[in-house]
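INTERNAL AUDIT FORM
Audit reference: QA-55
Scope: verify that the stored structure record matches its stored sequence.
Auditor: D.O.
Record contents follow.
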Amino acid sequence: MRRAWIVLCIAGAAVGCGKSTEAGDGGDTDGGGVDSAIDSARPDSARPDGGRDSDVPPGCGTIGQECCDGDACTEGACIAGFCVDCGDSGQPCCDGACDVGICVDDICAEPPSCGALGDACCPDGSCVEGACNGDTCVDCGGGGETCCPDGSCSDGFACDEDVCVSCGGPGETCCERGTCEGGGCCVGGTCTGEGSTCPRIGEMCMDGSCGGCGALGEDCCGGVLCTAGDAVCVGGTCATCGGGGDACCPGASCDDGFACDEGVCVTCGGPGEACCPGDSCDGGFACDEGLCRACGDTGEVCCPGSSCGDGCCDPGENRCVSEGSDCGLGVCGGDGSCAVCGTAGRECCPGDECGGGGCCVGGSCLPSGTETASGVCLAGEIETCGGADEACCADNTCDDGGCCVAGTCIEAGETCGMVTTCMDGSCESAGFSCGGEGQQCCFVAGSGRFCTAPGTECAGFGIGTCAAVEDCGGDSEVCCPGQSCDAGGCCVDGVCAGDGESCGEDLGTCNDGGCLGGACGRIGGECCPEGIGCSESFSRCLGGLCQPCAGEGEVCCDGACNAPFLCQPRPGPDLCVAP
C-alpha cells in the first residue's frame, strides 16, 4: 500500500508533489521520480557537469539518448526529451501500457485493491481503469460499451444515454463537440448531411452552415443555435469554444487540461483547481468535492484506487486514517487494509469485544444463539443451557424431553404457559398442541412464534408449522438463517458456495465469504453485482456497502435475527431488538 503512494507521488513530481519518503529510510529524498530516472539514463553531455563517457553511442531513440524528432524512441518512452526505461513498476508507462501493474497518471503502479478492469468499483464508485457499470469496472468508450467517466467515447462514437454509439454520419448522433462528417450540420443533436435541408431551419447545409447561419463567425440560427462543430453561440454569434477562458463546447466539453465550470473552460487537475472530466487530477492529487486536493496522507482524501501512503483508506469517508484507527467497520491494520472486527466469524475487537450481542471465544466472534463447549452465547454472555429454567441449547434442545419456550427450557410435566403442559418436547392441553414437529407453531406475545421440540423451526406464513431443521450451510446446500454458510462459504441466491468454489457466472470464486475472489460481498466492503448484494454470513447490503445483520441493534437478515433477538418492523430496514 505504501509503495502505491510513492508511485503516485512520483507521478506528481512535475506538478509540485515535491519530496518523497521511502518506507523505512526516515528521511526525504530530493529530485526523485521521473526526473531522477532521466538523469540516470541521459548521456553525460546532457548532464549538468557536461561530461561524456567514450562509450555513449551517437544518434537518438535508444535508452539514454535524446528522443528522435522530439518525441520518438525506438526503446523505452520519451520523457522530457530523453528515452528512458518504461513499463516496470514505478517507471513511466510505455504508450499507456505497463509490463508490470497498470498505468496510473502515466506511471506504472501495482494494481489497486479496487478499480482495475474486472474488479469491483471503488467505494466512491470510481475505477482506475475503464468505467463503473453494475458495481464492476469494465472497458469503456468503444462501440456499444459504457461511456467513459468523463462522458467520452472513442473516435467515431458519441455518448448517448451512457452507451457509446456511432456518430457523425447523416441521421446519426452528432460526435463530441457537435461535429459531423463531411461538412454536415448538427441540428438538435443529430447530423444533417451536407447538401440536405437543415430540419426546423429550412435552409441547405453547406460546410457546417445552414443557409448562412450556425458556422463560426456567422449569426446563431434562431439566435441560439450553432450547427458547425467546435462552435457555441455567444452574444448571438457562433464563436470558438473549449480553450482556457472560452465558453464550453456542446456537451460541457473543453480542450485537454480544462474543465467546464459554470459555462466557462478553466484549468483543471492541479492543486486547488477544478477536477478534470471524469473527476481526474494530476498525479499526487485526487478529486474531493469538485476540487483537486493533495491525497494519501492521514486526514487527506484517498488517492485513486482507494490508496493511502500510510494507514488505510476509510471506505465510508474516503479519507486516509492512521494504523490502529477506526476504519469502516473495523480497525486499520499494518497491511494497509481496514480489518473488520467484532462481527460474526471475524476476529474480536480489542478488549475481546464483539458486536450485535456476540461472544468472543478463542479470539473469534460467535453470533448470539451459538452453542459452545460450555453453554450457549446469548446477548454477549456464555450461559449454561438445556436444564430447567436455563437457556435452550442450539436447535431448541432441552434436557430430558423438556420444551424450548421462547428461548427458555421448561421441564417435562411443567406448564408451558397458562393452559398447556410440556410433554415430550411439545406444549399440549385437551384438544390443542403446538411446538412439536408437524404441529402449529406456538405464540407468546412479545416473543413471536416459535417451536418447542429439538431440531425444529417455524416455517410458513401466518402462525406457521414446526418442521424439521433442514440441512444447511454446506457447499450447494441452502443458506442457514442469517444467510450464513459454513467455513467461509458464500450465500448466493439462497444457496451456499463453498470457500474456493464458484459464486456463479461473472461472479468469480468464493474467498472467505466474498465473491469475485473476496473483492465484493464481505462486511465492510462493496456489495456484489448481479443483484447478489452481500455473500458473507450475517451481512446485508445497505447504501452500497455490506453491513452486519441479525445481531442486536443490527438490521434483520431477511426477517431473521439471532436468538434471543426479535425482528421489529419499522420505517426503513427492520431492526433486531431484545425481547
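Auditor finding: record pair retrieved intact. The longest strand covers residues 157-160.
Action required: none
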